[in-house]
Amino acid sequence: MSENRNSFCGCRSNGNGSTFTGNGTASGASAASTAGAAAGIGAGSVLIDTYQVFDSCRDRDCFEDVRVYLDEAGQCIIEHTGQVRTKSAEICSSAISVEPVQLSRGFYRVTVRFYVHLELEACTCPGKPQCFNGVAAVEKSVVLFGGEGSVRIFRSNAVSDSFCSRPCSGEMTTNLPVAVVEAVDPVILGTRVIDPSSGCSCSCCCSCEDMPEQVVNLFGGIVDSTSRQLAVSLGFFSVIRLERPEQYLINAVEFSVPDKECPVNEDDSPCDTFRRMAFPTEEFAPGRTAAINTDNGCGCHRDHDRDDDDCDSRGSREGRSGDRENREGRSGERGCGCR
């Protein structure tokens, strides 16, 4: 009869002396240990699902005379001047593809295409520069090891969890390697206007029709002109890696809960906020902040010649006081290190 009452109230024993209540809390065991015990994992261990890096590389690439696609206004500007410079370059979008390498099991070719937004300036007449924008595209490929194996992974979503869900409404993925690319904004190495009559041509990995629509919309449209063209030389620093989803058993001490409380936005006056700011010593004396901060108020480090005299005279006066304990206390309060 007692067993029926215990099962009715939701209390049961796990066999090691600790009792679990029906509201999900455990007496004598943490929540992480409870979840680990349910999954057959030892105490203090947690099973996580994350990505493992199989292979990675870093690279620096220089792309010379990359064609810059302009809108009608920009194309009209370079038709009347040859003095053009690039003020800034920023990666605005990218396209990444991962394909297996034939006859090399476990290796994949990662192809990355960067779309770069360029802010340009041209000198059409003395003293009146004109600014305009353009877009350039560069492409690179690397081969990395991504491991073997391919399974299909299905996950539920908000649609499949509903009461009246449609068939095949879950999400399906694979454990094929995922490419992750990190890159800084390119370094501008040069800009020039190329005349087709000179026999030179720009290098480009794609045509005007291959530009993505979302990139073209940033500039209000681009034109594919066969007359004068604008070319830039860019340098890229990048890191590329291949990752796969994996499950790992790790040791966990406790859940990570932030101790810092969210600050309240107080309506202080601008002067009160300004008074709380630290004085910008580094702006007035670059590289001397550490030396200035070592001053504990005695000023002994300012003149090394006077340091010995000051500290010797101070020591002699303390010696004449006749109280050794007071003398040690005063020298500890100075903290200037001149002894």
Structure description:
The longest helix has 18 residues, at about 305-320. The protein has helices at about 1-10, 30-40, 70-80, 215, 270-275, 280-285, 290-295, 305-320, 325-335; strands at about 10-15, 20, 25, 45-70, 85-100, 105-125, 130-145, 150-155, 170-175, 180-185, 185-195, 230-250. It folds into three domains: about 1-45, no CATH class; about 55-250, no CATH class; about 270-339, no CATH class. The N and C termini lie far apart (about 85 Å). Strand 5 and strand 6 form a beta hairpin. Residues about 1-30, about 295-305 and about 325-339 have low confidence and may be disordered. About 20% of the residues lie in helices and about 40% in strands. The chain is built from nine helices and twelve strands. The strands form three sheets. Strands 4, 5, 6, 7, 10, 11 and 12 form a seven-stranded antiparallel beta sheet that branches. Strands 1-2-3 form a three-stranded antiparallel beta sheet, with no helix packed on it. It has about 350 residues and is of the alpha+beta class.
